[in-house]
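[09:14] KT: can someone run the structure on this one? pasting the chain below
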Amino acid sequence: MAAYSMLSVQMALFLALSCTSITHKAASFTFNRGITSLATTRVAAKKTARFAVTKEAVEIWRQKAGFGTVRVQDNNNDATNSNKDTTSSNNEASTTLITAATAAADIANEEHQTKVAQAVQTDDSSNNSSSEEEEEERYMPPWSLATQRAPSSKAFARFRQHVNPLSRRFQMPTDLPENWPYSDFTNVNLPLYLDIGCGKGGFLLELVGRRHGNVYADGTDTYMNNTRLFTDTTDDWLPSTMNYLGLEIRPGVSQYAQNRVEKRGLSGKLSFVGCNANVDLDRLLSLYTESAETEVDDGASSDGGSNNELKFVSIQFPDPHFKKSHTKRRVVTPALVTTLAKFMNQGGVVFLQSDIKEALEAMREKFVEDDGLVYFDEHCDDDDCKVDVGTEEEYGLANPLGIPTEREVSVLNQDLPIYRTLFLRNDVSYPSKSSDLARNL
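[09:31] RB: done, structure tokens below
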């Protein structure tokens, strides 16, 4: 009997301990459900109010909940009553937890909205000024925007190779100083050499330096060292004194080229302008020719007459724009040819060269059709300018200037062909009735 009673006591204790374990598990499950509900509430609050629970929200939750960890009182004397009391207590705790979390979310959401309103009010003036700057930049020519690169950094000399000249930003007229060309040239009453698509300006810097006794002596410049191997033949084609102007459409490149002018001691003779030649060429040449006429009228001309004609134009290795849909982006257009004819006198020279045969032929085509046919004659050393058609000697004219460009040096070092041609301005005055007839046809 005693043994039976002892066994009954042991079983009762076992059942009480089991109930206690189950109660703990139930409490843990209920608490996890409360945490899950809190997470769900937080996600909903984030989606609707862009709200994330902060440390302040957690502190509010603790104050509202009024408890830390769910505790279960163990009552070994009455397992059944303990289980019921613990379950009821956990249900109340879960309800309180969810209510507190919701309240915390609402309070934190209000605080978040208040902070957002304050931030908007604080940044209102700065946003307005920023918007005005963006609007101003939107309508500013790309060549007027200051580069973010330091002139002394290596990155300053690295630029993208291609741009779309037909994009809206490159259809804007470039900004020029009010007193241009006086601002760039010491004597505006000189013939003008024009290089369209001058790149970084290495060719013009070497050309002007050689012709005016200011050769750059830096032995670290690979291009300059390579050009010394070529004979300068510019005296056969160019006057002894000239002004030199390079046009480049890529904004950073034109700024880089202009920064090199002063360094080489060529200020007043050479200038680089960032612009789209098909947009600004007529304006630039008009300003240049009109400035010399004004100088003559004021009696300031040294030789008593105007001699500031456009004498020589070079277009060397332009972007070929291979894709058929991109051919309209090429720099030589009928309008450009007409502008050159307008400002050139008889004997003026247009020199074209490229290492891409199709690119050279596309340029040449514009000078043998329409206005080009009226105002320009192709210069030939032989009876036919296209000698040995179909071979590497086709368009094999020698470089009339002798001094190569950077691209030309690279191509020659690879023993690849270069295609060239040259046009001379004839004696047909501009405008011509034949020109009008050709345009109407």
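[09:33] KT: thanks! Strands lie at 192-196, 243-248, 270-274, 310-316, 349-354, 376-378, 419-425.
[09:34] RB: yep, looked fine to me
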